[in-house]
């Protein structure tokens, strides 16, 4: 895991004022912005700045000024924190359409965590003043932000419960249960989209990459899961749930 350092520049400081011409950005595909009026959308477009990052670049630095809201337009990122002894701990993954940095914008405070690019990414930065205007004047944005914050509190609570599990294998099984989503169509198996690397999962749940590999291999051999390049299918959800409850 790459760790934040003082030599890498946060998105809000480094981003050019306009998107390069080859970027085809469809802002209505971002859930937070999807229901904006045409007038508000035009205001957002004029304020946005864009930046590309390479894999393992630091997009946001913990402790930096919270002077904007950010949107992930393409690629994958991970929110991380660093312990007092210097270990990087993954908190959650971000996928295209997700936004981040909202807490510091709302509070007018510093960034509470860092964000690392897990692949080449394209990020849009909306200055704090424009973001706060949306929160207070666009009902659809305010409503979605409230639901997002409520879900974030619940997710963080579930994650703390996960880390309190002493049995490492059960932590891995519980992590998969928390990450899974329904299949795209009725009858399709539940799925973990944008599956993190084994090392990234290990960082998030405080174990080793080898332990994660062994656990996932065992699940696959039992026919409980099936993996492809970037997804993990839960073929036997009841069996996986039972493993999370085993002593």
Automatic annotation (TrEMBL):
The keyword Transcription regulation applies. It holds the Pfam family cNMP_binding. CDD domains: CAP_ED. It comes from the Bacteria. Residues 166-238 form the HTH crp-type domain. InterPro entries: cNMP-bd_CS, cNMP-bd_dom, cNMP-bd_dom_sf, Env_Response_Regulators, HTH_CRP, RmlC-like_jellyroll, Tscrpt_reg_HTH_GntR, WH-like_DNA-bd_sf. The chain crosses the membrane at residues 115-135. Residues 32-152 form the Cyclic nucleotide-binding domain. One of its GO terms (cellular component) is cytosol. This is Cyclic nucleotide-binding domain-containing protein.
